[in-house]
Specification:
- This protein is an alpha/beta fold.
- It folds into two domains: 23-53 and 204-501, Glycosidases (TIM Barrel, Alpha-Beta Barrel), CATH 3.20.20; 67-200, Trefoil (Acidic Fibroblast Growth Factor, subunit A) (Trefoil), CATH 2.80.10.50.
- The protein is 29% helix and 21% strand.
- The strands form five sheets. Strands 1-14-15-16-17-18-19-20 form an eight-stranded parallel barrel, surrounded by five helices. Strands 2-5-6-9-10-13 form a six-stranded antiparallel β-barrel.
- Helix 9 links the parallel strand 18 (400-406) and strand 19.
- The protein is elongated.
- The termini are far apart.
- The structure holds 2-acetamido-2-deoxy-beta-D-glucopyranose.
Length: 507
């Protein structure tokens, strides 16, 4: 009698299984080169501060999506305010402009907007069509479209035309109505004149594409993708002593060629090219999901529309993100340069809860493993969270990496430090943080973003060189490696290309 598994067949199964364990094991021991990488920031995900010229041709480019306005009545000197933060009338009785006095733009074109108040309601008119209220929770259906008309291009004086065709006026502190002809002088006797100040702006992918409008956005973004990073840059990376790159991408790239508005198609083609160029030069690619649907941190670099953080607050945002990870992983799994996937960049506490993140990380890990058994899975720590809180989530996962970002900026503790104090901070604080996180059988550690820039004014080249060198040494202790932010940037110290070419960074 012949058993269903003949001897030779059984051996084949055993052999394949053994090879699987060996190949799987290869990524799991520590016998691989550490990553010394550079981020390709500002390429497939727009960050205006890295290349401001992208916004140059947008009409009224101070009135982009998310721009936060405060409007002070010229007659009374009081600010417009959404009573109770929204869900009620608009009043004009506040001496100081704070959160309830802040109005955020949802841009339709250079002069027409939906306007959102503190608690996310939209501005509109009451049932009589006269009084200003903020009831609507829906931008498209029930909220009004308002026009902002400046006195002149560079003036802060504005009039606001309401959906009924008349102009908003602050008649008294409690009565704000849309019933002015708006044809008086631009002085302080006309209650339809407001002094507008802009307290916050965003320059991300949403703002640039929506600001340019579909046709021009398509042309300008394609031109940017084509020229900002080119194949020659990969030669530079390969010959500079780097061995890889981290590529920030947005969720909409997975919906190419027809991403939802205002995003424009075509970015996937350049991501494909990057993988091809990397493969030719044996460079490793870390794919980094920098923008998740709804925004995971409310910053422009996650493509927020108006500063809201909505990722993880509905199941749908998590499920959609998992589909994005599956799309990218299955697309590049066979490319030998495909080294790691960062599941989500810089989720921010408390908006992104640890439980939503844990759920997503566990499901995301499984999806990556399904397609790419050997790729590393990178779990970003939460901004304003404790880095160690991620460790329990990673229990039982293989080939996982904890990603931390170390900037000696964006916190008051750095504002008074001199160069030596910054360097000491790296040597002492950062190195002990890293050591505490790096354990022999826990997840690997990765400093996925750092830069040789600080708050110090007038530092010498030698100071910068020592600072960069110290960071390389300390972040070199991270068990997975590090990545500089970024390859190109109009701000020289933030451009690794400039720093290497000008002798500030030696590898
Ligand atoms: C508008 O407000 C700004 C500061 O908030 C002030 O500097 C400016 O003088 C004001 N403009 C007018 C015309 O009052």
């Amino acid at each position: 009698m012949i058993s269903p598994y003949s001897n030779s067949r059984l051996w084949r199964v055993v052999l394949v299984f053994a090879m699987f364990i060996i190949s799987n094991g290869r990524t799991l021991n520590s016998n691989y080169p550490k990553i010394r990488a550079v981020n390709l920031g500002g390429w497939l995900v727009t960050e205006g501060w890295m290349k401001p010229s992208l916004f140059d041709t947008i009409p009224n480019n101070d009135l982009l999506d998310g721009a936060a306005l405060q409007l002070k009545s010229m007659t009374s000197g009081k600010y417009l305010s959404a009573e109770h933060g929204g869900g009620s009338i608009i009043v004009a009785n506040r001496t100081f402009g704070k959160s309830w006095e802040t109005f955020k733009l949802w841009r339709i074109n250079g002069t027409s907007f939906h306007i959102r108040v503190f608690n996310k309601r939209f501005l509109g008119l009451d049932s009589n069509g006269v009084r200003l209220v903020a009831y609507s929770t829906d931008s498209e259906l029930t909220s009004g479209i308002f026009e902002i008309i400046k006195k002149s291009t560079n003036s802060s004086l504005v009039r606001i035309k309401a959906p009924n065709g008349l102009f908003v006026q602050a008649k008294s502190e409690e009565l704000v109505t849309a019933d002015s002809k708006g044809d008086g002088q631009w002085g302080d006797t006309d209650p339809s004149v407001f002094n507008m100040s802009i307290t916050e702006v965003f320059h991300g992918e949403y703002q640039v594409t929506n600001g340019l409008g579909a046709l021009r956005a398509s042309k300008i973004m394609k031109n940017h993708w084509k020229k900002f990073i080119v194949e020659k840059d990969f030669d530079f990376i390969a010959t500079s002593g780097l061995n890889g790159m981290r590529i920030p991408v947005g969720w909409w790239t997975a919906r190419d060629p027809t991403p939802p508005k205002p995003y424009v198609g075509g970015s996937l083609h350049y991501l494909d090219k990057a993988f091809m160029w990397a493969k030719k030069r044996n460079l490793k690619v870390i794919l980094d999901l920098h923008c998740a649907p709804g925004s995971q941190n409310g910053y422009e670099h996650s493509s927020t529309r108006d500063g809201s953080l909505e990722w993880g607050q509905t199941e749908e945002t998590i499920q959609e993100t998992l589909r994005v990870i599956e799309f990218f992983t299955s697309r590049y799994a066979k490319n030998p340069s495909f080294y790691a996937v960062g599941l989500i960049n810089e989720p921010r506490a408390p908006g992104v809860t640890l439980s939503a993140l844990a759920k997503y990380y566990k499901a995301g890990y499984k999806i990556v493993r399904k397609h790419a058994p050997n790729a590393f899975v990178i779990l970003s720590t939460r901004l304003d969270g404790d880095p160690k809180e991620i460790f329990p989530i990673a229990t039982g996962m293989k080939g996982v990496v904890i990603d931390v970002h170390y900037y000696n900026q964006f916190s008051p503790i750095f504002s008074s430090m001199n160069s030596q104090q910054n360097i000491d901070f790296i040597k002492t604080n950062r190195s002990s943080e890293l050591q505490a996180m790096t354990t022999s059988n826990g997840p690997l550690t990765f400093v996925g973003e750092w830069v040789a820039e600080w708050e110090v004014k007038g530092a010498s080249k030698e100071d910068y060189m020592r600072y960069a060198k110290t960071q390389q040494e300390v972040f070199g202790l991270a068990s997975f490696g590090w990545a500089y932010w970024s390859l190109k940037n109009v701000n020289n110290h933030w451009s690794m290309e400039w720093m290497i070419k000008n002798g500030y960074i030696k590898l």
